[in-house]
């Protein structure tokens, strides 16, 4: 059926990488076992992150290990390489990789050849040249950032509780989030909810002492749930005393003062940046066709335009939305598309290997669910608008059904059940970020500098 020893190289172990590999693993089991086909998955982390659970991980409702899926365990018929592709020469069917070993050996990058390429490095935060942002901004895309932010918020409450300086206290208790998409809104809403709860264990920090600010450049938030539900979310957040500022931009956060375009100034130690994403920069280090926004120009069959044997999907790919009324529209960068595209992509690689015609990818956006903290949510799915507890419940049921593997589903469900029986977890394990500090002190060395600076 296929030529001898075909190597499929998958760059990226996120939604697209994992689901494509799972699909191929299932459909090409015989060939993988016989060695006729080899799948190599290259990913900087040995796990896939289920990003929609990051806000709940930050709030402490799910432990960090359960929002990630170990690649080696689920991709047992694939070869998983922990590293990064730094360049791709598709004309020569060669990728340049750096791995932990290449760094350790100082041998420089290594080259790997392939027959089929799946390029799915996703996206990175879209930042702007705002003074102070690179030094003080906090992202919210990885599990490390989510847990780091949780520890940071609790640490700020500890600082506020113990300082005698009102300026330090005010800055510690001011939390500014920039960007009103689901990442920003859910992260803010979950963390505010967690901090409000945690405040009951502080003798001198009350929920009303904290200032939570959401800054959004457009005139609405949460476009994913539609206009009406977006307006409801603004009302709901304001009811919780969250300062939602629409049509406003962050102009500076230098010297730890967030300056907004409406003239407001907030001394703060927390500026969380969730103002959109842009395609991963590695795409520019390939000889593949990109569109004007830096995404890979793809066909509705999920191949990269203008070449053969190169495939893509997810945040990195500009895939025509064949269900849209107006021509020229692309599928939005979200998990709903990424998962479905990955499955279609896997099927199409199998079709291509077997010389069968390819299928066209088409999926009409079904809407979205978002959590706004424990027992609070908003949803707009298949035309139905839901808010409050039912929306929050829908959010949990939907994501439980979507998180990959039965193992992860069971663990997340167990955690939710336990946190329903016991009180919320409010511990901060910020010291995990500096595990050698105590021993360095004991051994008489100088404790290394806090990488977070003065935060
Ligand atoms: C906080 C948050 C909440 C979200 N909530 C929702 C939601 O509720 N609903 C929804 O539909 N969408 C949601 N999304 C968006 C969704 O997670 C993304 O659209 C989806 O992850 C895109 O999948 P992907 O495979 O393209 O990219 P990713 O899942 O980001 O995977 C890309 C992978 O490639 C790896 N990689 C990067 N560079 C290289 C390289 N050079 N070499 C090798 N590997 C590389 C990365 O480390 C990563 O593992 C959310 C996103 C965030 C950040």
From TrEMBL:
Family label: Belongs to the NADH dehydrogenase family.
The coiled-coil regions, if any, are none
Q: Where is the FAD/NAD(P)-binding domain?
A: 7-342
Q: What is this protein called?
A: NAD(P)/FAD-dependent oxidoreductase
Group of enzyme by EC: oxidoreductase
- Which GO molecular-function terms appear in the entry? oxidoreductase activity
- EC no. given is 1.6.5.-
> From what superkingdom does this record's organism come?
Bacteria
Q: Which keywords does the record carry?
A: FAD, Flavoprotein, NAD, Oxidoreductase
């Amino acid at each position: 059926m296929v030529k001898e020893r075909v190597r499929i190289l998958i760059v990226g172990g996120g939604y697209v990488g994992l689901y494509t590999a799972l699909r191929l693993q299932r459909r090409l089991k015989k060939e993988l076992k016989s060695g006729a086909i080899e799948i190599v998955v290259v990913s900087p982390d040995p796990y896939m992150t289920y990003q929609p659970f990051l806000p709940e991980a930050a709030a402490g409702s799910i432990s960090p290990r359960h929002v990630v899926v170990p690649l080696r365990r689920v991709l047992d018929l694939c070869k998983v390489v922990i590293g990064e592709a730094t360049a791709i020469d598709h004309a020569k069917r060669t990728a340049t990789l750096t791995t932990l070993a290449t760094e350790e050996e100082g041998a420089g990058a290594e080259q790997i050849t392939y027959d089929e390429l799946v390029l799915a490095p996703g996206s990175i935060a879209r930042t702007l040249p705002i003074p102070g942002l690179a030094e003080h901004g906090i992202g919210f895309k990885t599990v490390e950032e989510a847990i780091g932010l949780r520890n940071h918020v609790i640490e700020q409450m500890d600082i506020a509780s113990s300082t005698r300086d009102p300026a330090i206290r005010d800055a510690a208790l001011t939390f500014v989030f920039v960007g009103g998409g689901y990442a920003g809104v859910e992260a803010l809403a979950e963390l505010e909810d967690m901090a409000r709860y945690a405040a009951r264990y502080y003798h001198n920090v009350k929920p009303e002492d904290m200032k939570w600010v959401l800054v959004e450049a457009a005139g609405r938030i949460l476009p994913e749930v539609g206009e009406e539900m977006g307006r409801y979310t603004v009302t709901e957040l304001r009811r919780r005393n969250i300062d939602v500022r629409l049509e406003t931009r962050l102009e500076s956060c230098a010297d730890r003062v967030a300056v907004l375009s409406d003239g407001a100034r907030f001394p703060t130690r927390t500026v969380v940046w969730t103002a959109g994403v842009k395609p991963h920069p590695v795409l520019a280090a390939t000889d593949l066709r990109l569109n004007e926004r830096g995404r890979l120009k793809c066909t509705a069959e999920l191949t990269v335009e203008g070449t053969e044997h190169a495939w893509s999907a997810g945040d990195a790919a500009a895939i025509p939305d064949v269900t849209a009324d107006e021509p020229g529209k692309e599928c939005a960068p979200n998990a709903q598309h990424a998962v479905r595209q990955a499955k279609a992509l896997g099927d199409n690689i199998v079709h291509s290997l077997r010389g069968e015609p390819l299928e066209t990818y088409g999926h009409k956006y079904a809407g979205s669910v978002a959590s706004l903290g424990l027992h609070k949510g908003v949803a707009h799915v298949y035309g139905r608008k839901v808010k409050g507890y039912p929306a929050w419940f829908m959010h949990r049921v939907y994501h439980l059904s979507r998180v990959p593997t039965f193992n992860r589903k069971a663990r997340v469900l167990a955690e939710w059940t336990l946190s329903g029986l016991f009180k919320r977890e409010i511990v901060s394990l910020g010291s995990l970020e500096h595990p050698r500090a105590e021993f360095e002190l004991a051994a008489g060395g100088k404790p290394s500098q806090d990488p977070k600076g003065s935060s």
